[in-house]
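User: Here's a structure from my thesis project, written as structure tokens. My advisor, Dr. K., wants to see whether a designed sequence matches the one we expressed. Can you design one independently, without my sequence as a hint?
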């Protein structure tokens, strides 16, 4: 059974559509949405509805910091553009869509897998896994063999051996990586809706639960159309232009 791991969609309809199509073509049978469904992008209602439909079919979805901010209000730590996007996004969603976001769990466990947006040691604190130190802290905080999380928009892979030896890896797209059963693993698939490594192509990962093979994927999509949706969204023009440029540049 292949599981598609998709995180940080950020209301990007074009990117999410392309990733769903790519995942299904490549054999994905189940989906895990690792938070930040909304924020920044121009199609929050469409993205939330698509995730709701996937969840009704058995998909896993967890809450991200932008999803939480839609429900409770922008966090004090949020930058001005993110804050403006949150306030605009909330006005685009109806009561049922807001209720869905409010009901998302902070984490989900299934079959020796932990699904969480930011980390395992403090899911509601949304601390970033910026390197090996935070990754090991997260792995030590869970008994699960596999942790799948987002929040960091760049793809990364970390592992912890039974003897306490830690490792990290910057993956190459499309390469199968065997996740050896004698280690714990932390997988960050990267951002579907707003990659930040200079490459605008959407990120996600595929995990074959039967074989233990993981592959990180990059999916080109119509980034010009996604940027145009942001520009036409009704957001403050200066904010919209900055957010559109970030999509185009992969920042």
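Assistant: Designed independently from the structure alone:
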């Amino acid at each position: 059974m292949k599981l598609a791991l998709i995180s940080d969609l950020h209301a990007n309809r074009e990117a999410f559509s392309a990733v769903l199509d790519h995942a299904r073509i490549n054999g994905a049978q189940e989906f895990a949405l690792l938070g930040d469904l909304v924020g920044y992008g121009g199609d929050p209602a469409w993205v939330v509805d698509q995730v709701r439909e996937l969840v009704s079919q058995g998909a896993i979805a967890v809450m991200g910091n932008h999803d939480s901010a839609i429900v409770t209000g922008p966090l004090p730590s949020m930058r001005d553009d993110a804050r403006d996007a949150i306030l605009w996004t909330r006005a685009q969603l109806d009561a049922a869509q807001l209720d869905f976001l409010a009901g998302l769990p902070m984490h989900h466990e299934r079959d020796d897998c932990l699904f969480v947006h930011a980390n395992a040691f403090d899911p509601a604190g949304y601390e970033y896994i910026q390197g090996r130190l935070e990754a090991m802290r997260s792995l030590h905080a869970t008994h699960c063999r596999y942790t799948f999380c987002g929040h960091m928009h760049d793809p990364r892979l970390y592992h912890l051996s039974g003897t306490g030896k830690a490792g990290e890896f910057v993956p190459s797209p499309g390469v199968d990586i065997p996740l050896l059963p004698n280690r714990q693993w932390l997988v960050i698939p990267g951002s579907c809706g707003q990659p930040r490594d200079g490459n605008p192509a959407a990120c996600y990962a595929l995990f074959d639960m039967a074989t233990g093979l993981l592959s990180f994927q990059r999916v080109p999509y119509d980034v010009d159309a996604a940027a145009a949706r942001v520009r036409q969204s009704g957001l403050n023009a200066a904010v919209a232009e900055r957010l559109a440029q970030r999509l185009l540049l992969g920042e």
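When you compare it with your expressed construct, this may help: The mean pLDDT is 94.
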